[in-house]
Design goal:
It is built from ten helices and no strands. The protein has 195 residues and is mostly helical.
């Protein structure tokens, strides 16, 4: 994107340009190369502009990760069945986030040490809105009479996402459709449907 000579970006236009540059730098080079100076150069702005908004590189990195993940939020799928909804939700997460999940795991070790956070903290910060999707899917399944209650232990609710994330981190590649179906059919549904 080229800027007209002398035209200053402000407000959301400037912030979007900075976060796009920051996200691109994280994806391309990792947190080790992620500096305020490098982001400012990539965004074609000054370091002072960045420091006014994000006092540390950790703050900027978190904002960039949220920004990079925000485009993937959507309503929970509604296929008409619990199994179909959970598979569709996992497939969407697999397509949208598998590359990012692997990249962040590899590149953010220094971020966790520097900020005193954990991958779980980052996941909660980034996927806060998505966390309710499975609860909505379970409520709809109760309404359709597929399950007696949406009151499923948190560990069981988290299990499909945890197993998918483990698969992606261990293989550094998206999970196969067969793996997603296996997680849903062999692990999740038996726990949700058990009497």
């Amino acid at each position: 994107m080229s800027l007209e000579a002398g035209r200053r970006r402000r407000g959301s236009e400037l912030e979007t340009a900075i976060l796009d540059a920051a996200w691109g730098l994280l994806v391309d080079s990792g947190y080790g190369a992620f500096t305020i100076e490098a982001v400012a150069e990539r965004a074609r702005t000054s370091r002072h502009v960045l420091y006014r908004r994000w006092p540390t590189r950790g703050d900027l990195a978190l904002a960039a990760i949220r920004h990079g993940s925000a485009e993937h939020t959507a309503l929970p799928p509604d296929t008409g069945s619990l199994r179909g909804d959970v598979i569709a939700l996992m497939t969407r997460a697999n397509e949208d986030r598998s590359r990012v999940t692997a990249m962040l795991s590899v590149h953010l070790g220094t971020y966790y040490l520097e900020t005193g956070t954990t991958p779980a903290d980052l996941r909660q910060s980034v996927t806060g809105e998505d966390a309710g999707h499975l609860e909505e899917i379970l409520r709809r399944a109760v309404g359709r009479g597929e399950i007696p209650s949406a009151d499923v232990p948190e560990r069981v609710r988290n299990l499909p996402g945890d197993l998918l994330r483990d698969e992606v981190l261990m293989t550094l590649a998206p999970a196969s459709d067969e793996t997603i179906a296996s997680i849903v059919d062999e692990v999740f549904l038996p726990l949700v449907l058990k009497p």
